[in-house]
């Protein structure tokens, strides 16, 4: 019975997040299962054949994981949260991109992964509270372009036939929807300044009507590109993100889906997916730099 009790305790320690180990506001929150999975999948990646699409390799290792929103919230002190067991669309993209950056740099440790995740998630890669997180995906793209981690792919030529003028204000207009802003209303003004800095910028995108199974679109969008779905919802820039997957019938989306409640490769084409959502207008294309 004593052995059984110890085994149960050990099992719990392997899955409980690290904030239970002493600090009231830790700098890093994760479960042992996360660190084991990260190091294991990085070892697997070392055995991949040359030319393997690494974003899709890593993203497909996460297919079937539950969709859970707001996993970064409610920890206090804005720690770096690593959660590979439960994902939303943004944390899926960040997790996969951090793993790709590890492979590109010859890194294989959990601490390497966490450092890359921090670089991606926070302004200039520095975690300085809730307002330093890159909450709007346009801001995420711009900041990570400056760090040389990603590049937005666009052109004045087809299929980039439309222009998005970013107007973001949703967070400052609805602070009651965010735990951190309810707790610290003084941060709303900081978020509003960030929104003003992003608003007014213009980006070319592929409208959903142009997402055909054509050579032009296949040349513009590659397997493993980050797909940022543009929208016309007031105060928002991007409605959803995921990864591009080309199949025989056209372009599909690998994403953490709130509809399917898990990470999936969408069975329908991305074009059909977008037309099922009237507020979705098209896609911006972001490529992890090689």
Folded structure, characterized:
There is one protein chain. The chain is of the alpha+beta class and 290 residues long. 37% of the residues lie in helices and 19% in strands. The protein is built from eleven helices and ten strands. It has helices spanning 2-15, 32-45, 54-61, 89-104, 110-121, 137-146, 170-173, 179-183, 188-198, 215-220, 270-275; strands at residues 28-29, 80-81, 150-153, 162-165, 202-207, 226-231, 238-247, 250-257, 262-265, 280-288. Strands 3, 4, 5, 6, 7, 8, 9 and 10 form an eight-stranded antiparallel beta sheet that branches. A two-stranded parallel sheet has the order 1-2. A hairpin with a 2-residue loop joins strand 7 and strand 8. The longest helix has 16 residues, at 89-104. The chain is globular and about 50 Å long. The N and C termini lie far apart (54 Å).
Shape: globular
**Per DSSP, what share of the residues sits in E-state strands of 2 or more residues?**
15-25%
Low-confidence regions: 1-24
> Radius of gyration, Cα only, in angstroms?
20 Å
Mean pLDDT: 92
H/E topology pattern: HEHHEHHHEEHHHEHEEEEHE
**What's the total count of β strands?**
10
* Separation of the first and last Cα atoms: 54 Å
Count of individual helical segments: 11
Percent helix range: 25-40%
Largest sheet report = 8 strands, antiparallel
Structural class by secondary-structure content: alpha+beta
């Amino acid at each position: 019975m004593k052995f059984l009790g110890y085994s149960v305790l050990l099992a719990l320690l392997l899955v409980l997040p690290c904030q239970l180990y002493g600090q009231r506001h830790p700098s890093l929150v994760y479960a042992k299962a996360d660190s084991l999975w990260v190091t294991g999948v990085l070892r697997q990646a070392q055995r991949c054949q040359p030319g393997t699409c690494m974003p899709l390799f890593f993203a497909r290792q996460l297919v079937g994981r539950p969709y859970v929103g707001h996993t970064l919230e409610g920890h206090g002190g804005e720690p770096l949260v690593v959660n590979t067991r439960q994902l939303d669309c943004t944390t899926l993209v960040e997790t996969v991109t951090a793993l790709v950056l590890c492979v590109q740099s010859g890194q294989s440790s959990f601490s390497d992964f966490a450092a890359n995740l921090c670089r991606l998630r926070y302004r200039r890669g520095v975690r300085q509270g809730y307002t330093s997180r890159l909450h709007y995906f346009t801001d995420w793209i711009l900041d990570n372009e400056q760090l040389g981690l990603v590049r937005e792919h666009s052109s004045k030529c087809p299929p980039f036939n439309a222009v998005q003028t970013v107007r973001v204000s949703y967070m400052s207009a609805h602070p009651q929807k965010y735990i951190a802003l309810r707790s610290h209303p003084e941060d709303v003004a900081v978020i509003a300044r960030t929104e003003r800095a992003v608003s007014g910028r213009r980006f070319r995108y592929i409208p959903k009507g142009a997402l055909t199974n054509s050579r032009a679109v296949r040349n513009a969008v590659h397997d493993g590109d980050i797909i940022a779905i543009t929208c016309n919802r007031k105060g928002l820039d991007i409605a959803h993100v995921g990864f591009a997957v080309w199949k025989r019938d056209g372009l599909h989306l690998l994403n953490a889906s709130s509809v399917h409640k898990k990470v999936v490769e969408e069975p329908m084409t991305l074009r059909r997916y977008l037309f099922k959502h009237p507020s979705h207008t098209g896609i911006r294309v972001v490529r992890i730099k090689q």
